[in-house]
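Q:
Just now I want nothing more than another pair of eyes on a protein record. Here is the record:
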Amino acid sequence: MKPRASLVVLDEAESTQDEARALLQAGHEGPVWVMARKQTAGRGRSGRPWQSAEGNLAVSLLFLETAEQSVLPQLSFVAALALHKAVRAVAMRHGAMRAADGLELKWPNDLLLFGHKLGGILLESEPKGRRASVIVGWGVNIRHAPGGADLRWPAISLAEAELHVPSEILLQELDDHFWRWHSLWRQSGFAPIRKAWMKRAWGLGQRVRVGTGSNVLAGIFRELDARGALILEEDDGRVHALHAGEIEGLRPLRTEDE
């Protein structure tokens, strides 16, 4: 049964993650969605800035999680699948089949459209006894995609794919699909999440480059392991289980016109 989550909508916020954390510090346990129509100081993984202009989706979900804290990182894959499904559902409803079929998930937490970055996810948690307060943040380029030479990955918006969707509609889909995937995860563990994620994975079975702090490893992206680590096989046969890092592609990026 889907939890009944409340919704806080802000015209502008520095960060929906910070707004959700403020609710947590004020005693709220959730579930509550915090959405900002404009986000001025959002952040992604490793504290990197996340640009979110007006018309894009910037939202965070605060909720209390009772699963073992050791498995909480798996929620990033749950959140990624929910976002993939939500955007695909909206695209199909609007007859944008090429956009629906052009969606892929890039390890560990990005949504791609035609090989370009459409959205990202940030997972944060705080222990609370045997439970944990979790804040999951999603950012999706609906109307605008960031540009500039400093981008780590080329970006795209739904508008560039001729898909014009209000952020509130995408949030409704996200609310529905997140709790569905979350329920599956709680009932059946990570195995079905892992399987579903790999079906949508960008670069699986292909040569990729992964930055892990000061090192860069290149090899074949073989699979996710049972804990969500990326299994990378180098040319010399050495195999690495990477639990953190950022994947970069060596194959050419696809474009919308291909």
